[in-house]
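User: I'm writing a tutorial on reading structure tokens. Could you give me a worked example: one chain, its sequence, then its tokens, then a sentence or two explaining what the tokens reveal?
Assistant: Sure. Here is the example chain.
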Amino acid sequence: MSHRDVRSAERPDPDRSMVDIADYVVDYRIESTEARDTARLVLLDSLACAMLAMKFPECVKHLGPLVPGATLAGGARVPGTGWELDPVQAAYNIGVQVRWLDFNDTWLAAEWGHPSDNLGAILAVADYLSRKAEREGRPPLSVRDVLDFAIKAHEIQGCYALKNSFNRVGLDHVILVRLASTAVATRMLGGSRDDIVNALSHCWIDNGALRTYRHAPNAGPRKSWAAGDACRRAVIHALNALKGCVGYPSALSAKTWGFQDVAFEGRSFEFERRFGSYVMENVLFKISFPAEFHAQTAVECAMQLHAQVAGRLDRIERIEIETQEAG
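And here are its predicted structure tokens:
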């Protein structure tokens, strides 16, 4: 075996972008009052979305244990239900509730998405840890702790979205939910900087969900549980990291086999700003309608015009057809 062959098996330093996330999650202190105030609104808004989703049987059927009977007494609770589950399945449940109606917060950039999707993982892990701590005579996590982890999850997802378009390579934006949730869940569970990097490497090796379910002719309701699925996977990676599962330092940059070559056209990620609290401070709320943010004014217009045109829809359709034929 040549000297080159021996060196090719040496593990490189971890990819810089994974280290940057770990450094941010471990070291950054939230000092922005605006970010915390907004995070409170995000939490309340997301829980309201979750409760409204409980009116829809298609959502409710996703809730509970994956296998009937596989509950965990004293585990993480699912809001609006009596379920007590392991934190992995609870993350899926809460993620489904928050996301089901497309009514939670949003972020528009090169990649769009809904940063509050990460609350599926954050709330599940927080409740699991808090109930465990109380049983052991230790203090539970505070709401402030939850808000700070939400700010960091928003920041990771949102900063990646600013200049990196995953939809252009056919991947769904929930890949960034899995990324952000993996980082913060690992830290919440007591993970070190190295644990976070290891967990993130597994997150990237997962590659990403295809956007098939968001587009005709294959559009379907998976879009409403895809973020919950990303939260579930994130908690799995976090728990595995805490068990000491080995990570893969060049999961992104490895030639041929890394995420960048396999799924991102060989490109490295680009960033507009360093991680801070910018995303939470500027996140967008859907105040009026459960629709894409850029469709809010169009839906508002349609609702106001409906009374005037409801009795003439057949005429409008006829005029449209005639116009198209004439054109």
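What the tokens reveal: Confidence is low (pLDDT under 50) at residues 1-6. Residues 290-327 form one domain.
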